[in-house]
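Hi D.,

Good news: the full-assembly prediction came through. Inputs first.
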Amino acid sequence: QATQLLSELSHPGRTAVTWPACDVPEQPIEDLIPGSYLSDKALQLPELTEGEVVRHYTNLSTKNMSVDTHYYPLGSCTMKYNPKRNERLASLPGIVDLHPYQDEATIQGMLQLLFELQGIFSEISGLPACSLQPAAGAHGELTALMVAAKYFKSIGEDRKVVLAPDSSHGTNPASAQMAGFKAVSIKSDPAGGVDMDDFRAKLTDDIAVLMITNPSTLGLFEKNMREIADAVHAKGGLVYLDGANMNAILGIARPGDFGADMMHYNPHKTFSGPHGGGGPGAGPICVADKLEPFLPSPVVVKDGENYKLNFDRPESIGRVRSFFGNVGVLVRAYCYILSHGPVGLREISENAVLNANYLLSQVKHFLPVPRGERCMHEFVASAGKLKQERGITAMDIGKRLLDYGFHAPTVYFPLTVPEAIMIEPTETESKETLDAFVQTLFRITEEDAELLHEAPHSTPISRPNEVQAARSPCLRANFCSS
Amino acid sequence: QATQLLSELSHPGRTAVTWPACDVPEQPIEDLIPGSYLSDKALQLPELTEGEVVRHYTNLSTKNMSVDTHYYPLGSCTMKYNPKRNERLASLPGIVDLHPYQDEATIQGMLQLLFELQGIFSEISGLPACSLQPAAGAHGELTALMVAAKYFKSIGEDRKVVLAPDSSHGTNPASAQMAGFKAVSIKSDPAGGVDMDDFRAKLTDDIAVLMITNPSTLGLFEKNMREIADAVHAKGGLVYLDGANMNAILGIARPGDFGADMMHYNPHKTFSGPHGGGGPGAGPICVADKLEPFLPSPVVVKDGENYKLNFDRPESIGRVRSFFGNVGVLVRAYCYILSHGPVGLREISENAVLNANYLLSQVKHFLPVPRGERCMHEFVASAGKLKQERGITAMDIGKRLLDYGFHAPTVYFPLTVPEAIMIEPTETESKETLDAFVQTLFRITEEDAELLHEAPHSTPISRPNEVQAARSPCLRANFCSS
Amino acid sequence: MAYLYNTPDDQHAMLKAIGVDSIEALFSTIPEDLRLKRDLDLPPQMGELELTQHLSALAGKNASPATHACFLGGGSYDHFVPAAVDALASRGEFYTSYTPYQPEVSQGNLQAMFEYQTLICDLTGMDLSNASLYDGGSALAEAVIMALNTGKRGEKVVVLGTVHPEYRQILQTYFTHLGIEIIEIPCVDGIADLAKVEETVNAETNCVVVQSPNFFGGIEDVAAIAEIVHKNDAVLIQSFDPISLGLLKRPGDLGADIAVAEGHSLGSAMQYGGPYLGIMACNDKFVRRLPGRIVGQTEDRRGKRCWVLTLQTREQHIRREKATSNICTNQGLFALRASIYLALLGPGGLKQCATLCTQKAHYAQTKLSEVERLEPVFAGSPFFKEFVLRDTQGNVEGLLAEAREAGFLGGVPLGQFFPEMNDCFLVCVTEKRTKQEIDALARTFSLIHSGSSTIHA
Amino acid sequence: MAYLYNTPDDQHAMLKAIGVDSIEALFSTIPEDLRLKRDLDLPPQMGELELTQHLSALAGKNASPATHACFLGGGSYDHFVPAAVDALASRGEFYTSYTPYQPEVSQGNLQAMFEYQTLICDLTGMDLSNASLYDGGSALAEAVIMALNTGKRGEKVVVLGTVHPEYRQILQTYFTHLGIEIIEIPCVDGIADLAKVEETVNAETNCVVVQSPNFFGGIEDVAAIAEIVHKNDAVLIQSFDPISLGLLKRPGDLGADIAVAEGHSLGSAMQYGGPYLGIMACNDKFVRRLPGRIVGQTEDRRGKRCWVLTLQTREQHIRREKATSNICTNQGLFALRASIYLALLGPGGLKQCATLCTQKAHYAQTKLSEVERLEPVFAGSPFFKEFVLRDTQGNVEGLLAEAREAGFLGGVPLGQFFPEMNDCFLVCVTEKRTKQEIDALARTFSLIHSGSSTIHA
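Then the structure:
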């Protein structure tokens, strides 16, 4: 039903909204605003009834796979269950409807929550200072790198290089670039860790920051973590931890304890913020004491019994976002963390790692996992051999999984593994589901190659022509060449 | 995904709920309640995580057609759009969470709403007294018939007969039976109205109540309404209006003005209460002044500036339901009525009738509509000829519509039309949708008979074996012979 | 205009297709003299913003358990509703669909109802459940109808005085005018007097209605009553509190033939009394006499397991005046909520919930009974989550009004139901009440007693 | 334990399959000395009931527009959100899915984003829109990056002083440490001085940032500024208020090359500042430099129209340090909300909404300016829904604190952004404010002035 676009469903004269009559004495609008500023064209927005809008979007929604409907082992994205209570609580009056410029006296409950959350994030990270302002993980990276830049400036050093392993998220080098650094890539060793020779070779005196994802995108804990961090510190550099994979080590190891000076969290991954079809996330960062003065303003402080916003931070990099931050996401993270407590948080990681290792132990027999027998919260299998032997690609396998009611794992990332299939079960899936997934995956590897190339077969659409989409971009309705 | 039953998904040791620790000094439970009263068996409820429950029910939901997803022209059920604002407003704190035994001082807002709603229902019906207590339309019928019984008793008359046309809802005779009356059926005339000869023949001196659905289930306004009502009144009987079809005459004709002494509303039909997969509805009734003393207790009254519950009603039939009534449904009706105002309410009926007549004008060319060229808010087509000529039944057509993404109309009701197909478009569907429906319906009548007998083809299941279901009833999991 | 689709252009095109000039003409079948010649006298239209402001203002005039610690019970309870219940039951596919007349496109509702029936059977220990009735009170009336219809000779209905007074009123309304005799066994001690039951129930008794936990919170000796009832070949109908079954023996284990309940506690809000959920479960022998919808399992043409409405020959739309009941709508959405609630809690969660209610209620009874002005009533009887207190100063109204000012909905005055108990009130303690709230209520009652100004909870 | 699935039995079976003895053993790859040897020092676990009570208590410590008539603006606005927006956006399939990497099972999100892009283009009069950015402030920074990256020689960024002060701070944070010169044109009269713009913009200017309606609510002469900017071959970036486009000329009509906005007003709550919606639209020429996700239309193998993420070679996951931005997540859920909002309002509804804001704001300006203590600032400039008042007694803090006691969030003090304006505050009037509230605020200010005790709204 829902493949028509809003613009195609539009029908002149329909509307879903009735505004109240103007209850103040009305004046001709031209008496209030000069006519030259007023639009002389009718807006081309669609005209629909409320029922049509509801039916359209309800039907659209059912064309998505989602965590609420399907197993979604999308590696690196931590598609865990998003608790319904968090949605309810983040929508409470007095939470959802606060204006960011309300006087502090009227938002003590909110400030208390945010103050506590700063402390919670610091405790989990082992890094004592926290900023809740960044709007997403990548934004947190950028913010932290700006903090680093200001820190070096404050001590009179001019450092330009940001190192990151070649298996890192693309956001790492991109953030380095945006922050004015030079992004340099470090090779991975055959076991998937940092190639120590390459690392040492690239660890020059002008190292500013080493960005490391640990556990890595391969799902491995960097075995030389301490040595790497010590080496960076010895050169006067800072270590940044990409916290995308914190789901594996909550309460088990703290970045601040294993050498990081800065990190971000991805609350939509680790702390169950809903992924929202692409966002919003949030990107709170924690840093070591010496970097605290440079964090964005404001931060929440406690003054006696009162909570306050502290803007009086002369060394701060300033602002990276309007208002306080992605509070709605942070409230959900707070709820999630309180729902677990210290023991529960550790159990999250234990079970995420248990689920991943269990899957690994079952999958490796028919889909090689090149990097290691053991993993943290996710692992990367390879269809390289299948491709060589039968022409079956990681993409084919991913697409075919859709037919069986499973979302595909992440494919072709990290780039260091050929035909990579990156599987992250998360802790909120049952052994039964994992078993069903493994059986299906195995069955697919035995299926006819042609069938797989043409997959998926039972989804609302078959494989789209992505080349055409990029070659002759059609980016809005009624404006496409085709 | 969701065809497994909860009991099959259950896994010992899982749960979705963590209750708080007991914060009062705990005592051994046997010290509080004698052991012989305590269960000695473990409950056999399913054990699931929250995520599993969410996924199960989310997927289950998508196996339903619904107004939010599909056109649903189910005759007699008025499947109109259910406004989202009503759901939000009926869920406001201070509305949704009130305890029925709160002191009147703490519920003045609620009582005001209910008091106003009593008045609104009376104004729309033209009958001055209202009880909001009945829980559903059929319950309203029963209640009104009890009111009638008590009324006759109060004037020392012993009347036993309740008349109702053969095209009426089954609830009419069933309610009459439950209320202790003898249900007698009146024939329909060829045009679908009350057969006046049969009516006169059955209008005996012990007539208690004539129950009439007007507009009728055939979608026709009873042309002899005044004459019928006068005749009943002349015999000392009462006229009851089954308000199921009020959607056709809001602000256009009032039952109290055309002869009814009593009526019920179906707020889930006329006033957009969601149908909820079968309910809840509500069944408020309005009655003439002389019947007011007999209405159930309590009713809401206004005393100066205060609203009160009046229990001091010595002639009342008493209670038909615990507490006040289906308040949540009534709040939605109130919202719906205020969303329209007097003009808007009439427009509802005008457009419901317009849509139905438009559909009728298009459908009659290929599916005969035996009773009349014109209709009110719905009409009944017949597949009788198609069945005779090609073996295609009303059921076949209904099932095939499902394949095309339309819910089936009501079939085989009323019983007076062979192979009845009862179509009620409602006012909240567009001409485009009606046109698409007509085209599809036409296309189906041209399709191969075999294809139709086997329809539906694209739904989650094919036609179920209903005979087997009734013959060897399996009414709970793990307790079926098959 | 709020939700309409037809624009004037649409209307014009449609009228043309119909072949009439005006919408007015479509109503020509309504005799002129029967039509309303004026606009309805109703409040003017409000858009969504105005309506929201209006309803918010009305809601703001109510106090509620969101603002006052709620110790009210008596058949409607302030139990906790997990967010997942609201989230799932508010999906449009559930609440904007109707009775599953077309099973091929209603498997969601049908399976959910079948699961509901299963859950209710497991919860109650009964053989069968229908797919829900209106509420606990009318469900009880339907149970009596079902018992009367089973053909046993007796036509007398015996009802214990500890049954919810409103439920007893409903039975009076439904049956006395039909000439069916309802014999109420007065309750003196807040619990059934077995000797009186023995004395009253006889061969003419069709059925006996007991409630346990009863209206005063007391737990009846249902098994002993069942023995008396069955000895007389009568039907035992038990009204129960579903939450209590986390701890107490199930109606089916106690010998009930029909078990009915107010089920809103299973995941639905109090809503000022409705819509609620009428639970009805029974023995196999009633299978073709059950009122309301029933879902059964079967197979489709391809042999796939599926579910349908079944045994419809009991129902009014088929059998008309010969139907087992006039019921048409059920409370599908609230049965769904109950299922989701039970699936979330599971056996352990329900047991814990019931245990918390019991522990806290007993703590509260002790604590509140220590208030000088108050004393426990029926103190000897075991109870679940409710108990009765007497205000020795005989001013229940005043006491509760002052407590209300201090932030408490402190109890249900019993004088409205039992004139002889107008110095008593019923206190309910659910799992939501905290020790802090209970202690504060006790302190408040004490302060009221001593005449001090009260403090807000 | 809250949401876990593995029971001890499951864990045991899984460990056995893995071939290790304990969960502990799975962490053996983490060097012993890097592990935490204690429990985290965090609050203990709370079940849902406790957590609900805790959050409700926190919420209860906040005042909000639900309890206080809100006249706050400055980039975050108390506009009305229709219930349908919440109902639809809260469907699990929307909010628990992620970036549509698998288009075959993400057509819902993809089509919704394509429609969002279409709606934004239609709303702004621009050629292109991406699928959203974080918020209005960072969107503006991304717009400047995009302008700087187009290859025009100039590296100087000119920003008008009437642009939101926080947005200007963000530009400072993003760019000054990179050595990019940001030239702010001070604002004296609450509106851009065209002569100063003319004077400042030159061949070295890469882009000019203007906001209209600006931070003070004033409507800038964007067309005139565009002329100056384009004469100097620079890029004009306009930050706008989407609601204002119900009345005002669109950025595309005024000559903006890039249009950015804070879009939360389109159907999302204020949420104490986020998550919000960064809108970015631009001319065709930026198509391969746009940051963030973009959805394009294409066909599947069977020729069916469908939608995919496209132009991904701009993005960090492909291009790493050569990407146009580091952005990975977008604000998909809030773009969805904006789409639903715009689809509900349509052109007429948006125009009416904008008109109500304008009429009411002007009424309020007049009314509040009549208060003896207050006077309008920048009174000569046309404005949309916000305006500045001066407290002639210089005690903005005290005035607003007293108004708060009377039930008003009366305005945003401007001293925090402009030290020279610490006797001024910004008042915003949306369609939600009623004449009654405006009059009551005026009365309250008067009463405060006269020293009378205030009354609650």
